[in-house]
Amino acid sequence: MKLSVLDQSPMKSGVSPDECIRETLDLAKSCEAYGYHRYWLSEHHNSEALAGSAPEVLMAAIAATTSRIRLGSAGIMLPHYSAFKVAEQFRVLEAIAPGRIDLGVGRAPGADGRTALALNPNASHAADAFPAQVRDLQAWTSGAELPLDHPFRTLRAEPRGPFAPQMWILGSSNYGAQLAAWFGLPYCFAYFFSDGEGAAEALEIYRTQFRPSAVLDKPHCGIVVWAFAADTQAEADYWFRSRALIQTIRPRGRFLALPTPEEAETVELTEIEKERMEGIKARAFVGTGQETANRLRALCAELKADELVITTGVTNHEVRRNSFKLLAEAFGLGA
């Protein structure tokens, strides 16, 4: 099973957003050295919690300082953009890092409605065109033919070359699973969005409805899981306080920068929120490297996932780096 990384460039208390981006660049080099297969970057806009607003730019920067690890978007929120322009961007990335580029796309806005409107004045209708955008994007990135009656059939996304980005459909609902199955593309479920709610159903829909394509002859699915490892369970629990609090107060309607573990302890919670936090802690993939890896393996076996993508965030960069190192060792990536 392939093990990969999703880095959302999480914002942290006491750290400027631009520094969070530089930490992403630094972590990518470490994860390549640890043996991870892919390094994916997310797209969020006008966020107080996540600094990564332009995954294609980060991919180019990381490509310049790595040589083996695959680089990808998880994902490009396609309804914000012209499919042709996205195709050109990823053809350029493919020229920079031949054979190493993943193009993960999603339909969700990755932003509030007002921000989505700022990105695309036609945002209210753009999501309806998502399947057609996926078709066009797949054709333009791979050099395949568009339908005869397509108004832009003769356009070519440059620079062309011997490799094409590997397209993925990303999602957290049955819609994305059905679309990936229809186009015969790899599918990745955002397990960490809702602690896995709906994951089993979506992945089963994907597998049963999958249609073989020119790029994939059988279903290939992954899951993105929030996981954290430390040298001891006590240390892991300490750093997890920040994530546990953010997840607990999410229903309040705000997505905030990660507080330090000490700051997280000072936040007053309602009785309902205290119960919610205990549930979050009980379900979390948090512990020593081997213990966390064992639980992740069991989850992948249960869901029949072909790939596992790990995302994590704590307020100390070196601690986060060590988590990825411990998990890589527990999964035997060095071997």
TrEMBL record:
SUPFAM superfamilies: Bacterial luciferase-like. GO terms for cellular component: cytosol. One of its GO terms (molecular function) is oxidoreductase activity, acting on paired donors, with incorporation or reduction of molecular oxygen. Residues 1-302 form the Luciferase-like domain. Pfam families: Bac_luciferase. Coiled coil: none annotated. InterPro entries: Bact_Lucif_Oxidored, CmoO-like, Luciferase-like_dom, Luciferase-like_sf. NCBIfam families: oxido_grp_1 (TIGR03558). To bacterial alkanal monooxygenase alpha and beta chains. This is Luciferase-like monooxygenase. It comes from Acidocella aromatica. The lineage of its organism: Bacteria, Pseudomonadati, Pseudomonadota, Alphaproteobacteria, Acetobacterales.
